[in-house]
Amino acid sequence: MNFAEPLTPGVLIRRYQRFLADVELADGDIVTAHCPNTGAMLGCAAPGLRVWLSRSANPRRKYAHTWELVETGAGVLVGINTGLTNRLVEEAIIQGVIPALTGYGSRRREMRYGREGSRIDFFLEGESGACYLEVKNVTAAVAAGVALFPDAVSSRGTRHLRELMAVAAQGHRAVVCFCAQRNDVQEVRPADAIDPAYGAALRKAVANGVEALACRAEVTPAGIAVQTLLPVVLNGMI
Prior knowledge:
Blueprint: E1 8-16, E2 20-25, E3 30-34, E4 50-55, E5 65-71, E6 77-79, H1 85-94, E7 106-113, E8 118-126, E9 129-138, E10 140-142, E11 146-149, H2 155-169, E12 173-180, E13 187-190, H3 196-207, E14 211-219, E15 224-230
Parallel strand pairs: 9-12, 11-13, 12-14
Antiparallel strand pairs: 1-2, 1-4, 2-3, 4-5, 5-6, 7-8, 8-9, 10-11, 14-15
Helix pairs in contact: 2-3
């Protein structure tokens, strides 16, 4: 996935009210940008970090700029726009980067399913049957190349795991795929210290037939693309 227009670099002044960020541009101007990430953004929202913004030509938008990338204190580029995650994974499926999810001739997005009124990110269909695919964006990481999800308590994420378990119990394929938009990680783990309920639910889901996959994206100011598969590590806590 390439950005349609060159991104504008700047320096983060502050992120606030979850969806807003003030950024100082290279010419000294200060703009307020939309922050398309509802998580805690651990390690990715400290004042003074370098960031990159896209700009919309839509005159109706209150904030023309959208925060897309950040360079962490360790010098790692991270894609923080959760709205791009499904597109990245879909491109990876089409290109065969995620072999476990190839072979489905039909893909439907945001199909309503389950008892709790959820929408599945992708409903895949093929000769081998159906696959319910839930995609999660990962930005948080700790030392030794470990990516963590979630970075804040996620009752919604736990609900999605319950729905996937119900799908698996009906004999359908159910998959949760963690997409790390940073290239410095080697595995994905549940963030038990942040949301122990999610970690417990993920382990229970996998024990009851839900598949857990993970992938890593290469992030540059020109674009983002999934390139590598990662293991999902469930033993131990972090």
